[in-house]
Amino acid sequence: MKISAEALVETEDVKDIYLIENGKETKVGSTTEKIRFVRINGRDAIERVQTLNSDVLGNRKGITIIEKTTFRPISFTDYVNGTQQVKAEYSDEGVHISIKDSEKSIKLNGYYVDTFSVELILRVLPLKSGYSLPLNGFNATLESEVDIHIQVVESELFKRGFDEFVDAWKVKTYFGETLRYYWIDPASKELLKQSSMIGDGLVLEFCRG
User: Fold this and answer.
1) Would you state the torsion angle of the CA atoms of residues 111, 68, 80, 83, taken in this order, to the nearest 10 degrees?
2) 72 in Cβ contact with 95 (< 8 Å)
3) What is the pLDDT of residue 26?
4) Paired residues of 135 in beta bridges
5) Which has the closest alpha carbon to 37: 12, 63, 9?
6) Burial profile 35-53: b = 16 or more Cβ within 10 angstroms, e = fewer
7) How much is the average pLDDT of 164-175?
């Protein structure tokens, strides 16, 4: 399937981060996402910068750059407390990864996406009841390929702000064995919420205020 980012717009968004332990909710930080259009080596591209600030989860910044017309990955860079931890640079042959003082190249075949671009991909898919899509992914921090499976669960009334409600698609997404849920506003193409089980009775949520 051909995936294009033409429907996306440049945005800046802030979400609160919550840890929910056995039903008890605690705010533990915030995350900022900036999406902008750039030119990389003559190609139209999208740069997504996600910054996480949390005393509990740490301070991270991930920069994902993908081709605008195909969603093919160009690069991913991960920073922890301001220090670069991982740099992945993609080419037709595969991916070259630099982690601290070590480097390696991994051959990748066929069409694949960077796992950190999935939150962009979800916003441009033709989501509807019963929709599903498998993707081949690559996670640079894990240095491994990941099978991704996207499936629409249902349409759910989502409260946005104090008195605004929208019909959002609730989307179940597997990254290998890891399951996350996303809520997508089909009109604005906005990612409203993300939820994942990270331990026994422990849920991590990113939610628009």
Assistant:
1) 110
2) no
3) 94
4) 148
5) 9
6) beeeeeeeeebbbbbbbbe
7) 94
Indicate yes or no: pTM above 0.85: yes
Tell which residue, 45, 53, 48, has the closest CA to residue 74: 45
User: Bridge-partner residues for 169, per DSSP?
Assistant: 155, 184
Enter the tokens of residue 45. Answer: 């591209």
DSSP string, the chain: -----TT---EEEEEEEEEEETTEEEEEEEEEEEEEEEEETTEEEEEEEEEEEETTTEEEEEEEEEETTT--EEEEEEEETTEEEEEEEE-SSEEEEEETTEEEEEE--SS-EEGGGHHHHHHHS---TT-EEEEEEEETTTTEEEEEEEEEEEEEEEEETTTEEEEEEEEEEEETTEEEEEEEETTTTEEEEEEEEEETTEEEEEEE-
Angle ∠(5,106,96) on CA atoms, nearest 5: 65
Neighbours of 147 (CB within 10 A): 12
Q: What is the pLDDT of residue 209?
A: 63
Mean per-residue pLDDT, 6-27: 91
